[in-house]
Specification:
It is a single chain. The protein has 16 helices and two strands. The chain is mainly α and 271 residues long. It has three domains: 129 residues, no CATH class; 59 residues, no CATH class; 63 residues, no CATH class.
């Protein structure tokens, strides 16, 4: 004869699993980076994003509450009531324990709210872990820049025109559908990369313009005439080095599109 299904065992196992998951997800959220950075670089740990860890923690917390309520009401209700009154008199049977638990809960609550040691130290340690993830060179130009569209990014950051941004993305084979509705995060997901990587492609111009200003204004056709070489010969050399270029493009433009200083591009076909 099969054993009868034990709700007591079911609830106990469920509480144990929920407690383990809450412990792990709580630690992950305790040490996770701030949301602005996590979204900017697509931060994950054990394959889960920060939002997924938050969802896991929230839902298992709800599950833990439900199972705890069932455990209290269904299994231990008589024992729980007995704690409040003795069999012989209508008064607390576990008065000291009740007061002790109440004081402990209030101590933790108000100690956390008013940032009193050692509770403050625990939160400060969490802030230390949180801030340790973020690198200066990987910071977003503005908080939650991943939520900006290409049009909004061009306007807020004064980077360049939207047409120039889309041209750079096309050269780097970055797929996108709409400059007014798709955010950097949407485009990054579409191309299996990060908002940071998309932004680096878009903003590379500022770094490259500072270098090779003398030769950067000349086109491939200009150099072909100066060096007594054919345009096709120069383009062939550049293509052999995996550099995309066209005859009428300046070296500055070629450098921007290929993440190279114009002078490095010039060295390839001038030697």
């Amino acid at each position: 004869m099969k054993n009868k299904f034990s709700w007591r065992a079911f609830i106990s196992f469920g509480l144990t699993y929920a407690m383990i998951v809450l412990l792990i997800s709580g630690i992950m959220l305790y040490v996770s980076p701030p949301g602005r950075y996590a979204h900017w670089v697509n931060w994950t740990i054990w394959g889960f994003t920060k939002e997924e860890w938050q969802a896991i923690h929230t839902l298992f917390s709800l599950g833990f509450i439900v199972l705890s309520a069932l455990h209290l009401i269904w299994i231990n209700w008589r024992a729980f009531v007995w704690y409040f009154k003795s069999k012989s008199a209508a008064k607390f049977n576990k008065k000291r324990e009740f007061i002790g638990a109440t004081v402990l809960v209030l101590l933790i609550f108000f100690g956390t709210v008013f940032s009193v040691p050692p509770f403050k130290s625990v939160m400060d340690l969490g802030e230390h872990f949180t801030e340790s993830w973020e690198k200066v060179e990987e910071r977003a130009p503005v908080p939650h820049a991943e939520q900006l569209t290409l049009t909004e990014l061009a306007e807020q950051m004064h980077l360049t025109s939207v047409d120039e941004i889309t041209r750079k993305l096309k050269i780097h084979e970055i797929n996108f559908d709409n400059t007014n509705s798709q955010t950097l995060q949407d485009i990054a997901k579409l191309n299996n990369t990060t908002p940071l990587a998309i932004y680096e492609i878009i903003s590379k111009q500022a770094a490259n313009q500072k270098q090779g200003s003398g030769i950067g204004r000349k086109t491939v056709e200009d150099f072909a005439a100066e060096l007594d070489k054919s345009v096709d010969e120069i383009l062939a050399i550049l293509h052999e080095n995996n550099i995309k270029a066209q005859a009428k493009e300046t070296l500055r433009t070629i450098g921007e599109n290929n993440n190279l200083p114009p002078r490095d591009v010039y060295k390839l076909f001038s030697e």
